[in-house]
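DATA SHEET
Item: assembly model
Revision: 1
Owner: S.N.
Input lines:
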Amino acid sequence: MDYHWHWGILLAPSAVGDGTYLDWLLAGLRMTVALSLAAWVLALALGSLVGVLRTVPNRVLGALAAAYVEIFRNVPLLVQLFLWYFVLPELLPRAIGDAYKQSDPLVQQFAAAALCLGLFTSARIAEQVRAGIESLPAGQRNAGLALGLTLAQTYRTVLLPVAFRIIVPPLTSELLNIFKNSSVCSTIGLLELTAQGRQLVDYTAQPYESFIAITLAYLLINALVMLVMHQVQVRTRLPGDPARGARASGTTAAAP
Amino acid sequence: MNPGYAFDWSSIPGALPFLAQGMGISLEITGVAVVAGIVWGTCLAILRRSPLRLLSWGAAAYVNLFRAVPLVMVLLWFFLIVPQLLARLLGLPPGTDMRLVSAMLGFSLFESAYYAEIIRAGIDSVAKGQMAAASALGMRPAQAMRLVILPQAFRNMVPLLLTQGIILFQDTSLVYVSALADFFGTAYKVGDRDGRLVELLLFAGAVYFVICYGASLLARAYQRRTRMA
C-alpha cells in the first residue's frame, strides 16, 4: 500500500479553527453518549410499561401492546428516523410543526433521534420484560393476589423485582445496541461519532486514521457498557440465588 | 394531526418501476448476505470450537469485533476499502461503481458474526451424546459434524435464522450512506424530487412493515409446526 499514514493529523488544529480534529472526535463521542442515554431512559420506561401491559389479564391492552411491538420491530430504524424527522413535523398541528421547524437544527435533530431510538428500543425491551415476567412461575402472581395485594402491587413488589434481575443480560445487549444504533442518526446530520468520522475524512483526507479512531471509540463504549452492566448484575444479585445471577428462566425464585 | 396537510399520492404510481428496481437491489443484497453469512458463520462457529488456540481465538475475535461496531461504520469501512482493493487486484479503471459489491461483501462479513453466534448456540443445543455416538461409530469429527450434528442443529435454528434474515433485510436500508439506490434510497429520491417526501416515506415504511411482518408470521408458523411434530 502506498498510503501515507499520518496519525499526528488528529492533534492538528482543524480547518475551521475550533480546536483540534481530536476535539471533533470527542464532541462526537459526547453526542453519541448523550443521545444514547436519553434514548435509553425513554426506552426503559416505555418498554417496561408495554412489556407489563402484554402480561396483564386484559385482552384489549394486550393486543394494543402487541401491535406497538410489531410496528416498531418491522420497520427499519432508518425509515423510522426519517418518519420522525421529516414526516411528523408536517403532520402535527401547524402551530406545533412550525415551532419545531423554527427551533435550533440541533434541537430538532436530537429530539427526533432520541425519540426514534427510544421508541425503537422500547419495543425490543418490552419483549424482554414480557419474557422475564412470563418466566416466573404463575404461583408468584397468584400468591401475591391471594395475600390481598392489588394487581399493581403484585407487579411492583413481587413480579418486576425478580423479572428485571432475570433480564439484565438481554438488557445489556439492548444497551449495547442503542449505542451502535445511534450511528444511524448521522444520516439526519446529527454530529455524533459516525458523522464526525465522515467529516474527519472529508477535512483531513486521512480516511484510515479517522475511521480507526472512530472504530476504537465504539469499542471503548462497548467495553465500558459491558463493565457497568456486569457491576449492575453483581450488585442486584439476590442473596441465596443458586445460579449466582445467571439464573435459567423458569426456575423458582430462591429469595429467602 | 394537521388538517392542513394535503396528501398527494400521485407520484407513487409512476415511480413503481423504479421502486421495484430498488426492491430488487435490497433483496439481492439480503439474499447474498444471508447465504454467505450462514456459510461463513458456520465456519466461524466450528472454528470457535477448534482445539487449536489460534483458530478458536481468531474466530472469537472476529465475531466480537464485528458485533461491537455499528453496521453504519462497517459499511463506511467497506465503501472505503473494497473499491480500492478490487481496483488494485483486478486492475479495474478508477471510477467503476463498486458500491453494490462493497455492500454485499460488507453485509456478508458483518452478518456472519451474528449468524456464527446463532449457529454456535444451535450446535450446543444438540445433545453431547450425539457426538460421542458418532465417534463410537467410527466417524471422524468432520463427518460427525456434517452428518450428525449440523443437520439437527440447523433444524433447531431455522426460526432464529429467519428472524435474523428479517433484521438483515431491514438493515439493507442503511446502504443509504453510500447513496446506493435500494428500495428506501429510491423512495427517498423520488419523494425529494417531487417534493412529496411525506407520502413516499410513509409508503416505504408501509411496504417494509408488510414484508417483515408477513415474514415474521411465517417464521412463527414454522416454529409452531415443528414444535408440535
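QC remark: Chain A has one domain: 14-235.
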